[in-house]
Specification:
Blueprint lengths: L1 E7 L11 E2 L2 H10 L4 E5 L14 H5 L2 E6 L2 H6 L8 H19 L5 E3 L12 H22 L3 E3 L13 H9 L6 E6 H7 L3 H8 L3 E6 L14 H11 L4 E4 L7 H16 L1
Helix pairs in contact: 4-5, 8-9
The protein binds L-Erythrulose and manganese (II) ion.
């Protein structure tokens, strides 16, 4: 399992759970000094990943880009995949498709978290899940043609009312013809929704593609009360070899949050 940290490039996401902010190359170097061989980027849009805007971090530092977040489509534009408006749903899907192309430059999968949206405002749960499924099938095809992946992230009930648990997520994805979708397990969301986080990770099995490593209060892993021993045992049992990416508040500051994450990775997940 490989430690990773998040870097947000989105001013409108200020106050959000990202370890580092802006200046991707400087922050990647700071993370590297602490031992992080990978970073996860939260860009404002696909153009922010162009060669003219975004440094070739893999070439400059040797670090991998573990994943690219798509949540700016929601944070900046209020687009999502299950919105009542067909044109907004279309814009949401196009935004993610453009990110897939931009991220392919780094062989990086794209995350669908807050862009999944929610039902309500005249949209039934069945309808919203149908739209979500159609979008995932289509985006899976686009990911396949680029040789990359989508990470679908179930959220807690306060952020989405579509799929909150591993049980519901596994059942939903199993019925889709979307082989390029994997699951992103965010321990913060799971700690709210699952009776047993380690057991829920085991339910994902080979569907698991990425992990957001975080403590129960959205701060750095190891600073709260999350039980990492059974979680690490479950991931080891599954043979999980992906990233443990710190999506946490930069508290008390970015450097301390990153260092605490690295300690926790070495203590439980090495
Ligand atoms: C996205 O990764 C996520 O976990 C959301 O809760 C962001 O706020
Ligand atoms: Mn997350």
């Amino acid at each position: 399992m490989k430690p990773c940290v998040t870097i947000s490039l989105v001013e409108e996401a200020r106050g959000g759970p990202f370890v580092y902010w802006h200046d991707p190359l400087e922050n990647a170097k700071k993370a590297q000094a602490l031992g992080f061989e990978a970073i996860e980027i939260f860009p404002p849009g696909p153009e922010a990943l162009d060669a003219s805007h975004f440094p070739d971090i893999p070439a400059l530092t040797g670090q991998r880009i573990a994943a690219i977040g798509s949540g700016a489509g929601w944070v900046r534009h209020q687009w999502h995949l299950t919105h009542p408006s067909p044109s907004i749903r279309h814009q949401a899907r196009a935004f993610i498709a453009q990110l897939l192309v931009a991220a392919a430059r780094f062989d990086a999968p794209v995350i669908i978290g807050s862009m999944q949206g929610r039902h309500g405002q005249g949209v039934s749960k069945e309808q919203a899940l149908e739209w979500l499924g159609e979008a995932l099938v289509d985006l899976s095809k686009q990911a396949q043609s680029l040789g990359t992946w989508i990470y679908y992230e179930p959220l807690n009930r306060y952020e989405s009312n579509l799929l909150n648990t591993a049980k519901d997520t596994v059942r939903f994805l199993a019925h889709l013809d979307a082989p390029r979708i994997k699951v992103l397990a965010d321990l913060f969301h799971m700690n709210i929704e699952e009776a047993n986080v380690a057991g829920a990770l085991l339910e994902y099995g080979s569907m698991l593609g990425h992990v957001h490593l975080v403590d129960n209060h959205r701060q750095a892993a190891g600073s709260g009360s999350m039980p990492y021993s059974p979680i690490a045992a479950a991931l080891k049992h599954m043979g999980y070899q992906g990233y443990l990416s710190a999506e946490v508040f930069p508290l008390p500051d970015s450097a301390s949050a990153a260092a605490r994450t690295m300690d926790t990775c070495q203590r439980w997940f090495a």
